[in-house]
Design a protein that fits this description.
The protein is built from three helices and ten strands, in the order βαβαβββαβββββ. It is α/β, with parallel strands linked by helices and about 160 residues long. It is globular, with a radius of gyration of 14 Å.
């Protein structure tokens, strides 16, 4: 199963559209917040099961702040991350994930991609599709591929310079 993981589109869809075109086919899309009212458009664009959580810029949104679900036996916990102080580090969100019995913790908010694979927990942030803040400032996302037996491989991906807004 191929899962496309994105965050922080902030109502700017050009790069998201390019990423979806590049990565198709994928069987699930996970958006980790700050869609700013574009959730229906993103769901229609994806054309597959979609999980979206509310970010700190999703004012008056009915989206959930957090969600837990399973991907091929992997317990996934997703949130935007701002309630867990992710701008100051991942310790609180990792502790929350472990407390929930999660195998995978996914968050956004920082606009910087990261991937930490530990024996009992994978913590990841796809960065931002629209407004990256890491060195080089390339729009980023993560692709997760599972083998059907509970094993997953993660790759941080970047749009090249032609994909910039």
């Amino acid at each position: 199963m191929k899962v496309l993981i994105v965050s922080d589109t902030h109502k700017s869809h050009r790069n998201l559209e390019k990423i979806m075109e590049k990565e198709r086919p994928f069987q699930m899309l996970i958006h980790l917040g700050d869609v700013e009212g574009s959730e229906d458009y993103i769901e229609a664009l994806a054309g597959c099961p979609v999980h979206i959580v509310r970010g700190n810029n999703d004012f008056f949104s009915d989206l959930p702040a957090e969600e837990e679900f399973f991907i091929e036996g992997q317990h996934v916990f997703i949130t935007h991350g701002h309630y867990y102080g992710v701008s100051m580090g991942e310790s609180r969100i990792r502790a929350e994930g472990r407390g929930r019995g999660a195998d995978l913790v996914m968050y956004g908010h920082t606009h910087r991609p990261s991937l930490l694979v530990e024996k009992d927990l994978v913590t990841l942030n796809p960065g931002s599709v629209s407004y990256p803040r890491q060195e080089g400032r390339k729009p980023s996302y993560i692709v997760m591929n599972t083998d059907g037996d509970g094993e997953a491989v993660f790759q941080i991906c970047y749009l090249d310079g032609s994909g910039l807004l």
